Amino acid sequence: MHKTLLVAALMLHAVLFVKAQEITSPDKNLTLKFELKDNGVPTYQLSYKQRPVIKTSKLGLETKDVPSFLDGFTVTNTEQSTFDESWNPVWGEQKTIRNHYNELLVTLTQKSVQDRYIRIRFRLFNDGLGFRYEFPSQKNLNYFIIKEEHTQFALTGDHKAFWLPGDFDTEEYETVTSNLSEIRGKMKAAVTPNVSQTTFSPTGVQTPLMLKSKDGLYINIHEAALIDYSCMSLNLDDKNFILESFLTPDAIGDKGYMQAPTQSPWRTIIVSDKAADILASKTILNLNEPTKYKDVSWIKPIKYVGVWWEMITGKSTWAYTDLENVQLGITDYSKTKPNGKHGANTQHVKEYIDFAAKNGFDAVLVEGWNQGWEDWFGKTKDYVFDFVTPYPDFDVKELHRYAASKGVKIIMHHETSGSVRNYERHLDTAYKFMVENGYNAVKSGYVGQIIPRGEHHYGQWLVNHYLYDITKAAEYKIMVNAHEAVRPTGLSRTYPNLIGNEAARGTEYEAFGGNNPDHTTILPFTRLMGGPMDYTPGIFQTRVSAYNPENKSFVHTTLVHQLALYVTMYSPLQMAADLPETYNKFMDAFQFIKDVAVDWDETNILEAEPGDYITIARKAKNKEEWYIGSITDENPRIANITFEYLPKGKTYEATIYADGKDASYDKNPQSYAIRKIKVTSKTVLKQKVASGGGVAISVK
Ligand code: NOJ
Ligand code: CA
Predict the structure, then answer these.
(1) CATH of 298-503, one of 3.30.70.2190, 2.40.320.10, 3.20.20.70, 3.40.50.300
(2) Strand 242-247 relative to strand 152-154, pairing
(3) Of 102, 200, 234, 428, which sits most exposed with the smallest number of CB within 10 A?
């Protein structure tokens, strides 16, 4: 071949080669570029509408026992493909979800390590990127131990961040809003005390991390399908604004035990110039596998009340006695003097069942029903609960009969006391006990340090426990709502009996000193990106001292804001957390909680700004009903509520639950006004929302 032609051909090949490693999203807004840098280091870049989102960022993993997956790579194959399919979740924010992406699969070979190879799979959706490491089965790769994953997210500047201190054992912090460069200075104050906590770096933060760039790009970083791997936090290089993965270690400092064929979870970057698009994103769910269950007919959204807030506020107790050191199995509770404040007694639970039945709730959660509570809190003991032995004043059989006669379920409560091995030992017996006594849902909890000691709530070992628990529950057709477990990563697509998680600072903190008024305007952009939260809204008695004079905490929202949360905080499991005696005094406002759906055909994010406000309209599943919720932070505002999603040409009646003229979260939280108006798809409503307030609307 002529020499110049040969050069031209080579150049063409090189160009093609580079091009082959660039893909765009189906709508062409996002571009992903994969490139090997000097010494064969894999990197990627992401841009949105020609604006850089992630600058050249390194990919790779450091291992403990075999050579690392960091450099020395050559690209030995690339494949591109497109996927476009719609699927229907068992429950969710919308009836149908479109899973549409362009994919790039890169095979990377390390010649110096006996031709060992890995793959990196990139999926580019219209609203974001997911990528993961894959370790195919091969002669020269079998077991390996992860020392650290070194996935970088190189940001373009000192973005505003909505962050929680990075911690291996708790997510129950207030979100701090600051520039990235301010994290180091604000870290110490952000680490508020918790019964289990392990921070790791002065610039370490948790995911989902919500960011906003100076030029108005909204960026969310998280992970999807966290299975058999440690939960990822992010460590910030605050000179260069590079975030890097930081995995949760186990008791001896290792970060993952792997055996090929295997893969990492997906690393996700959702991006848009509109905040509402972040909330509407289904990328994390789409990156999870379709459900593994053949029969899902037993999985149903739940609206519930519970013997709960009265303990949280200190009005009553979980424990039956006041004994400090009851030794389980030794103390005979039937001969022990009760403390007179035990919430979970048969008569009292029946009152809740009556209230649930009368007001159309599906279930009643009962905590503190089983023996052991005296012997637990603040102590670290292997064997506290057996999950089947009730206190003498809690009649399991009679309550089963009574609840069934009223068409109400009781929700089981398993406080594991963090003793995971003890829980696993009892799990089958505990689930059998549930089935025998008519329970089909369990709230579990992992308060305190994990036992075995040294393990962390978010390490691989615990991640595996939580999923074992969920799949084991499925064998018994039981739904799970796990508190203090790892933050969700969209696994409910695959395992839809995972109907709830806490994994953030819930309503309970309103009785432990309070949540900031902007708290619930941030959570949907952070914690809820991975899945629903059992936030337990609905507190109407905003002064906790009304229940317990010694508790001076107050709820940092108006009463109407509490109503709006049923729409803005999506969950298929919604609690009306306050006491029946209080709801009975506010029956007109309570009507909204009675009416509101917990499963949806459609969701419209009408307006949103993290830390400031959120307005969402949703259509109830299989019903001609819509529910709208709008919340604000401490700043009053006018909510702009449109109705274009209503069928054209039809007129509906809207019931508007609004803050009273003089309402505010700190001075007059219980002031509200209810009115009815006619609406059509053309109606535009400008509704005043108070400081810490909201508006809730039902449309029929
Ligand atoms: C913490 C949970 O979040 C809370 O809801 C529960 O009541 C307590 N643990 C007791 O287990
Ligand atoms: Ca908790």
Answers:
(1) 3.20.20.70
(2) antiparallel
(3) 428
3-state secondary structure of 612: coil
Q: CA–CA separation, 142 vs 263, rounded Å? A: 12
Q: How far, in whole angstroms, is CA 280 from its chain's centroid?
A: 15
**Cα gap 122→283, rounded to integer Å:** 13
Query: Quick one: which H or E segment has residue 582?
Result: helix 580-583
**Are the C-beta atoms of 578 and 540 separated by less than 8 Å?**
yes
Which residues, in sequence order, are CB contacts of 185 under 8 Å at separation 6+? none
In the chain, what are the domain boundaries? 2-286, 298-503
Q: Give the orientation angle of helix 420-436 with respect to helix 460-475, to 10 degrees.
A: 10
Could you tell me how far CA 333 lies from the centroid of its own chain? 38
Q: What is the pLDDT of residues 476-508, one digit of tens each?
A: 999 999 999 999 999 999 999 999 999 999 999
Whether residue 238 has its Cβ less than 6 Å from ligand 1: no
Residue 250 in contact with ligand 1 by CB distance below 6 A: no
Q: Distance between CA atoms of 214 and 158, rounded to whole angstroms?
A: 8
The CA 145 to ligand 1 mean position distance, Å, reads: 34
* Tens-place pLDDT, residues 585-611: 999 999 999 999 999 999 999 999 999
Q: Which of 389, 378, 380 is nearest to 320 (CA)?
A: 389
How far is the C-alpha of 125 from the C-alpha of 86, rounded, in Å? 14
Distance 170 CA to ligand 2 centre (A): 9
Residue 447 CB–ligand 1 contact under 6 Å: yes
Q: Which residues contact 577 (CB under 8 A, 6 or more apart)?
A: 305, 306, 308, 309, 507, 536, 537, 538, 539
Looking up tokens 């999603």, which residue turns up? 645
Structure tokens at 647: 């069928």
Q: 659 in ligand 1 pocket by Cβ < 6 Å?
A: no
Distance, in Å, from the CA atom of 383 to the CA atom of 201, rounded to the nearest integer, reads 33
Helical H segments across 329-380, by residue range: 346-358
Longest distance between any two alpha carbons in the chain, whole Å:
101
- Cα distance between residue 283 and residue 298, in whole Å: 26
**Predicted confidence (pLDDT) at residue 5 exceeds the cutoff of 60:** no
Q: Which of 6-15, 105-114, 237-246, 477-486 has the lowest mean pLDDT?
A: 6-15
- State pTM to two decimals: 0.96
pLDDT in tens, 40-68: 999 999 999 999 999 999 999 999 999 99
Beta-carbon-side half-sphere exposure of residue 522 (alpha carbons within 13 Å): 28
Does the domain made of 2-286 have the CATH classification 2.70.98.10? yes
Q: Which of 368, 220, 222, 235 is nearest to 306 (CA)?
A: 368
Residue whose CA lies nearest to ligand 1 atom number 6: 445
Ligand in closest contact with the CA of 418? 1
Active site residues: 508
